[in-house]
Amino acid sequence: MKNIKENICSFEINVDIGKKFEDFLSELDKKKAIIYSKNLRINPKADVVIPIDDGEQAKDLSNVLDIVKTLFDNDFDRGDYVIAVGGGTVLDIAGFAASIYLRGINLVNVPTTLLGMVDAGIGGKNGVNFAGVKNILGTFYQPSNIVIDLNFIKTLPLEELKKGLAEVIKYSLVLDKDLYDFLSLNKDRILNKEEDALEEIIYRSVNDKLGVVKEDERENKGIRVVLNFGHTIGHAIEAGSNFKISHGYAISVGMVCEAKIAEEMGYSEEGVVEDVLWLLQLYGLPLSIDKIGIPISLDLALSSIEKDKKTRGNFVMMPFPTRIGKWKKVDVPKETLKGFASQCLK
């Protein structure tokens, strides 16, 4: 088991990698509300149990308000716990509810997918979709504990594992050359779900993300934008498919597109695009829309770029890989970005 402790603003965050969820629950002596995905085959024991739907379609404000009402009706106070068990959707919804109930109640994230363990469960961002735009309503609110029970990964289909690996690969491309090398040399061990290999890539990813979040929790210093590599185009792909394309696959294609844009604009060293393509292909991730097999509306995708949260005036802040493990923030004219996106997403 590996442990990471980090202080972000007034929050002390404790991350346990390899700890059993049941063991953690037994250590809590306060009132507990467990919010979990209906897709999980678990029988959680808590004061309140709230099963919710998974997937982007469930990220609606009405679901957040339902949770808040349940907490209120059961007299939860600020010393009690909201425990989110599930993938990114559940973590987003539960985190948002925990952040607004009584201006903040103890939050524990128990991600059950690799994507949640290395991304959605880390960093304190949560939110729901609104008017067809991803995560337009939300807050920054850090969990006090993050419990990463590797037993959840062992039950994941290989396809779901690969979707999470897209985010791991993201960290390696813009923040962590050592992680890139580890991924390059340990494909079989990772895809075979060997525990020590999974523990290593999760540990490195969590460390990478927390290090960035500590420097720029609320995205006002231009540092946290690095975590959005592949996401400007990736979110456009999701919106263009009416969220039928999974986040991991959309980000995979998004990273390819954005690496090509960086090269076209002269920010990437020669060979970076080839390195991006090689690692994604090594893990069987899609490199283009046609490889996903789900059509998208280009108009919807471009409309999403118009509403991107990283927009500042007529520019979109984007992190470009300059070499493997290094990056640079670039303000890209919105029309230029839309032109590149149109070419990449045809």
UniProtKB/TrEMBL annotation:
GO terms for biological process: amino acid biosynthetic process; aromatic amino acid family biosynthetic process; chorismate biosynthetic process. One of its GO terms (cellular component) is cytoplasm. The keyword Glycosyltransferase does not apply. GO terms for molecular function: 3-dehydroquinate synthase activity; metal ion binding; nucleotide binding. Its cofactor is NAD(+); Co(2+); Zn(2+). It catalyses: 7-phospho-2-dehydro-3-deoxy-D-arabino-heptonate = 3-dehydroquinate + phosphate. Belongs to the sugar phosphate cyclases superfamily. Dehydroquinate synthase family. This is 3-dehydroquinate synthase. The gene is aroB.
